[in-house]
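Here's what a typical entry looks like (Sialic acid-binding periplasmic protein SiaP):
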Amino acid sequence: MFIKKLTGLALAAAMVVGANSAALAQQALKWAHVYEEGSDYHQVALWAAEEARKRTEGRIDIQVFPASSLGKEVEINEGLGIGAVDIIYTGPSFVERYYGPIAISDYPFIMRGYDHWKAYRESDLFAELSDGYKDATGHTVMGLVYYGQRHVTSNFPIEKPSDMEGLKIRVPNSPVMLMFPNAVGANPTPMAFSEVYLALQQGVVDAQENPLPTIQFKKFYEVQSNINLTGHILNSLLIIASDSAIGRLGDDAEIVETVLKEAAAKASQGIYDSEQSLVQWFRDEGINVNEIDKQPFQDAVKPMLTDPDQVPYEMEHFERLQAL
């Protein structure tokens, strides 16, 4: 009888261990973003999902949902807080709603180029701002992704700020994206990313602005004849994970964090490399790619960058970023 009881206890214990193992094997994370399946961002997310699966021996299953299939940018940011999504790509300009200073890198002409951006990514400033976002939201910034320099597309050349006066230009629905068009007298029109192509095609808006790789994979060049190299924003994305999701991963959390940081670096290099060859690619496609003097555009924006009423960061942040 005693032996039978021990056997029963052993079986029960084995069932508990088995159940725990099964639970670990079934840890699924939803990674949501607004970019197309063919974009570098989505492909790198798929790479990260496979790496996480391999490095955890199948215990972590990252499921990637592209092209706004789990919501537009504002919605997936909100989804982190309610557990609808676990990981997202999002712009610092959208995160500004939760913790303003972290949006500093996306303000017009504040970044001097890719090397400056990389210095910021590795800086104490970025680490501090990431901590500030976590304090405000409970979510963790896993990495900074290079999105590219944003340029204006239109159906006529834009060579000086006055060429943009009254121009109905689509921008993402975030405060930072309004600064540049407002500074040059344009008419900024917030609109979801997924709606832009049709809006351009139908003339709902006259122009839009995005980096060259985005203009290519979203095919905006099919409905806009000119790419004007304003380079007004050197744009980033953040990879953010909800703490509730990471908290349930146990020892595998460190592996997932490592993979996401590697993914950020991989996507960044891919976007930067593609940027270098795309001017010629667009010209070969018959698109007018217009080199412009950026100084008048910079002069229009500059007073706003140090106006405490118009920016969410402190002047100390601005000075530290400029000093990098």
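Strands lie at 27-32, 60-65, 87-90, 139-154, 168-171, 187-190, 207-211, 226-242, 288-290.

More examples are in the samples folder.
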